[in-house]
Amino acid sequence: MAVTSEVSQDGTVLVITITGRFDFGAHQDFRNAYERVNAKPERYEVNLGEATYLDSSALGMLLLLRDHAGGESAKVKLTNSSADVGKILAISNFDKLFEIEKPGHNG
Amino acid sequence: MANAERPALSVLIADDNMTDRMLLAGIVRRQGHHVLQAGNGQEAVKVFELMRPQLVLLDAMMPVMDGFEAARQIKAIAGDELVPIIFLTSLAEEEALVRCVEAGGDDFLAKPYNHVVLGAKITAMERVRRLQATVLEQRDLLARHHGHLLNEQRVAKAVFDQVAHSGCLSAANIRYLQSPYALFNGDLLLAAYTPSGDMHVMLGDFTGHGLPAAVGAMPLAEVFYGMAAKGYGLGETLREMNAKLKRILPVDMFCCATLLNVSARRRVLEVWNGGMPDGYLQPLAGQRLLLPSRHLPLGILQRPAFDATLETFAFNPGDRVFLLSDGVIDTANADDQLFGTQRLQSVFDHNKDPRRLFEDIREALSDFRGESRDDVSMVQIEATAPGSLPASGLIFSDSGQLTPMDWSVCFEFRGQTLRRYNPLPFLLQLLLEVQGLRDQSGALYTVLTELYSNALEHGVLGLDSALKKDGEGFTRYYALRQQRLEALEQGLVSVGLEIQPLPEGGGRLCIRVSDSGSGFDVAAKARGGDNAYAGRGIRLIRELSRHAEWADDGRSARVEFTWASQA
Q1: How far is CA B446 from the centre of its chain?
Q2: Structure confidence by residue, pLDDT tens digits, B148-207
């Protein structure tokens, strides 16, 4: 499990990338990824392309991020989720809270 | 070299050669330790028992009892505590050194003694001894904490069981499987009758484990049972649960849940699934239907955004509904493959005896991953023919002496109210102020429900119950109901209640329900004919009340209940 984050050049987007299992073990790293940035991004993107697994505490962490990013007005996009990860997001109907972008044509 | 930082140890030296012993004792003393002495193995064991030194220096070859045997006995007496034993030996042969270690020796020191080496060895041994002592201390501390935790869980579970047992999980048509400590896995299974004999069932799964999950379960169960007993519909219970969890839970905690309303009387199954795996509806004859997650879990959305829309299915005697926790399909085998829904469905397909379904699933799981697991929750409910109504789940704290006995009220519920509000629990609460009616609360609630839904569905919404002639029409009926209700602007249902004492004691309740609809042919409805879905309501009202009549082309119903005087 690894969490990395990167602010876009213009400082408006924070991209958080999860590698491996996204579960409670990632809790602190995931929070650090958006709490310890100096910029105040307008949008957030969580890249799940390299995430192999996602459990309910990871869903909870996504809710925390959404809350941090402004709750109802938050702009958080979940990208590149694999079929398995996508299924978990779908069961929880997280598409009602987050913009979920399926892997693109190059994926 | 005196060593202030090094703590003084008590060191036992056992050697039959007094010169050697005195020499060694001198060295050890000079290093700041206390010395105890023994002339052979047996004496060494005795001194050890009495004085409990922290370190033992043992000559291997001694009369009466040799060092090897003494080491064995000292280690046995010391038990878990580490008492380092250093063998004093002139034995050079490897085999003898091996024997020293086998007998429990931790190190050895060759004669003649070098005080620098001895000092270093004592220091090293003391370090190991303290490490071991710390480990033991922490082990005991952990064991104590674990004991506390188990005890707290036991108490919490006992309290929770008091809440959970007010339900009807023991009903004959429910089968369920749950680990006794499921509560601490975040799993929650609740079932309760409503006053009209419908059954509400909830299978929930909190994020997280342990105490936080259990803490969230408690208020949820209270809401579930309280509202079911008062006759609230599933949608209202859902909204209340969601609002409560949203209020009390931290942002990253929520509760996936499937809720069911099983109505034997209406032969209907209502389903709400937020974040749980697919449920399954298996009709007695016909295709298995999926009950997939359509909603966000409970405790995430704010009140206005929360969607309590239920899906409605026909549910006839012999039909079964099955729910399960994610533990089943998420079970992984050694190759990290998941059990998945395909395998689950195949278990369904091969299941011959519905009563053995759980066992079949558990067997398939244990075949799949090579060991069984006991942390999955499953529940199966079979549709039954409507039976007798359950006793009221409400507990009254008043004595009933202050019963209001001569009054009437009339309510008019108009467009916007009809769209959103269910007045039945409120009306029932009002009527149960009258003590004489409390014994009949089930019948009362059923009749009120029938009268109200007739007025609303057939009257105000103009729905034709003939539509419910088959499963498909049935689904269409409820979709249409939802659609028309949402678009409702006009229309009203009026409910009048009148309580009068009777001269011979006891009293009479008269319920009048009328609506703004276009009326219907009561006689034709009541005959019902072959149509299993229509007309049952009217027959039921007639059966449960003392007297029922319709006027104004079915637009107005008048129903009577009476009760005898109570001693």
Answers
A1: 30
A2: 988 888 888 887 777 766 688 888 899 998 877 677 778 889 999 988 889 999 999 988
**Closest chain B residue to the Cα of A59, Cα to Cα:** B252
Number of Cβ within a 10 Å radius of residue B331: 21
Torsion angle, CA of B455/B458/B461/B467, rounded to 10 degrees? Answer: 150
Task: State whether residue B205 sits within 8 Å of chain A by CB.
Answer: yes
Q: Where are the domains of chain A?
A: 2-101
pLDDT value of position B3: 47
What is the fold of B10-135? Answer: Rossmann fold (3.40.50)
Q: How many Cβ pairs closer than 8 A exist between chain A and B?
A: 46
- pTM score of the predicted model: 0.74
Look up the CATH architecture of domain A2-101: 2-Layer Sandwich (3.30)
Which CATH class name applies to B407-563? alpha beta
Write down the ipTM of this complex: 0.85
A97 and B300 within 8 Å at the Cβ level: the answer is yes
In single-letter form, the type of residue at position B450 comes to E
pLDDT digits (tens, 9 = 90+) for B454-497: 899 989 999 888 888 777 888 888 889 989 998 998 899 999 99
Closest CB from A57, A67, A93 relative to B296:
A93
Residues 294-333 of B with CB under 8 A from A: 294-297, 300, 302
Q: Distances in Å between the alpha carbon of B240 and those of B220, B226, B227, B228, B302?
A: 9, 11, 9, 12, 11
CATH assignment of B165-327+375-382, among 3.60.40.10, 3.30.1600.10, 3.40.50.300, 3.20.20.10 = 3.60.40.10
Inter-chain residue contact A93 with B293, CB threshold 8 Å: yes
